[in-house]
Amino acid sequence: GSRSGSRLRWRVRDIPGLEMTARYRAAGAHNMVGGDFYDLWAIGDDGRFGLAIGDVCGKGAAAAALTALARHTVRTASIWIPDHRPADVFRAVNDAVIKRAGNGQFCTVAHAFATPIEGGFMVTLASGGHPLPFIIRADGRVEQPGQTGTLLGILPEVTVHEHRTVLRPGDRLVLWTDGVSDRRGDGELFGEERLRDLLVANAGLEPDDLADAIESAVVGFSQTDPQADTATV
Questions:
Q1: Contacting residues for 98 by C-beta, under 8 A, at least 6 apart
Q2: Between the chain's N and C termini, which has fewer beta carbons within 10 Å?
Q3: Residue-wise DSSP of 64-88
Q4: By three-state DSSP, how is residue 214 classified?
Q5: How far apart are CA 104 and CA 49, in angstroms?
Q6: To 10 degrees, what angle do helices 86-100 and 60-80 make?
Q7: What are phi and psi for residue 145, nearest 5 degrees?
């Protein structure tokens, strides 16, 4: 990440029918270590995959260590836990953060587990204290399904709400960190409703153009440099 942001476009050969693009911008002009992360991984060789985006507390070396721990644990748990359920993944992340990170450290994560079905993917979504993803349907409708659960790393037990949905050709799943919604300009926040309105207005864009539109709107919302990391997948 850098002041000018970074972009990544993934075409995953092992996951037919899936395209992913991401944008990441670290807070501050010289901050090269951010507290946001995202990841995409194949599960087996049958088209199943996991996707996650997260945000850790703090900055600097401690935040970087927690970011690595959270990202690694989400991926590893998702691959190796039977049934690959996000609820079980979050319990593994929660346990890892409590046992291996410093007191008071925590993270939030939104996670999707997808299985190919005829004409699309069956997706299980869950949020561990993280903003709920949006879904843009092929016909332009914008949804925000699910329910936010407990943030990870504070309590020994977490509450996780799983939501199942189907993604079909032309649908887009938009995951984001609260650096997007919490961007402050002229005394107000960018906010989830403004993000939803942006997605509705740009529902017909291709993934790369949509990601650019989100980043441009968030950065341009204030004349000051972003004070929090922002990531969009």
A1: 153, 154, 156
A2: N
A3: HHHHHHHHHHHHHHHHHSGGG-HHH
A4: helix
A5: 31
A6: 140
A7: -80, 160
| Better-predicted residue by pLDDT, 122 or 21 | 122
Q: 67-75: which pairs have CB atoms within 8 A and are 24 or more residues apart?
A: 67/34, 67/35, 67/36, 67/37, 67/107, 69/96, 69/97, 69/100, 69/101, 70/37, 70/96, 70/97, 70/107, 70/109, 70/152, 71/37, 71/39, 74/39, 74/50, 74/109, 74/111, 75/39, 75/41, 75/50
Using one digit for the tens of pLDDT, what is the confidence trace for 180-225? 766 765 668 777 888 899 999 999 999 999 999 988 888 777 666 6
Q: Give the integer Cα–Cα distance in Å for 230 and 63.
A: 15
Query: Residues 208, 11: contact at Cβ < 8 Å?
Result: no
